[in-house]
Amino acid sequence: MPAQEMAQIPPPITVEIAFWIAIAVPLLVTVLSVVSFMTLQGYLNDTLAGVTSDPELPSEFQDGMSAFVNGVMLFTFIFFTVIFLILTGLWILFGFKMRAGRNWARVTLTVFASIWLLNSIFNLIQGGSTTTFTGDMPEIAMPTSYYVLTYVQAGLGLLSMGGFIALVFVKPSNWYFNAARRAY
Question: Is residue 3 a part of any domain in this protein?
Fold first, then answer.
């Protein structure tokens, strides 16, 4: 089948749904990650204000500690937001290529989805816990909203990536990608 004829064949509904998963879910998770970060930053600022509000501590120490924590949080936020935006852009780009019948895009997104799926399973098992125990360090309990956002992201990743992987390898999708491979 010539490439011109392949362009006229619409992708099956399974590929269409997988395409929309590849577009919507990374965008939604990026937004949820930003909201999660903002929740965490607000909580850490409140906790730090409570800890450093001791009148015996010099105000320079209190201001310096707050500036340091906010600087680290801002750097971390910018770093991870840039990574999430790059990965989201790749998901969307490869999603369009997959929709056009490119098998390499399907395989690449399947690898990405598998990693995301495993990460989601790990996060659901871990329970959103980010506390570490070192020596006599007390456990820090995060706000409930942080755990809710973590579970929502992990659950969304588990369901959507599992669905994505299944959708791109069912019989109609395989026929579509095999026809596209012969056309190109």
Answer: no
For every residue of 113-159, DSSP letters joined together read HHHHHHHHHHHHHHTT------TTPPP-PPPHHHHHHHHHHHHHHHH
Q: Describe the crossing of helices 13-51 and 171-183 by its angle, rounded to 10 degrees.
A: 110
Average pLDDT over residues 124-143: 64
Domain residue limits at 79: 9-183
d(CA 7, CA 25): 26
Q: Is residue 25 part of a domain?
A: yes
pLDDT tens digits, one per residue of 108-123: 999 999 999 999 999 9
Residue 127 placed within a domain: yes
C-alpha 116/C-alpha 40 separation (Å) is 22
Judge whether 20 and 122 are in contact, CB under 8 Å. Answer: no
pLDDT at res. 57: 66
| Torsion sign, CA atoms 88, 90, 96, 100 | negative
| Distance, CA of 37 to chain centre | 13
Would you tell me how many other CB atoms lie within 10 Å of the CB of residue 22?
Answer: 27
H/E element holding 57?
A: none
Total domains, the chain: 1
* pTM of the entire predicted model: 0.79
Q: Is residue 27 one of the residues assigned to a domain?
A: yes
- Closest by Cα among 26, 11, 173 to 112: 26
What does pLDDT average to over the chain? 85
- In whole angstroms, how large is the CA radius of gyration of the chain? 22
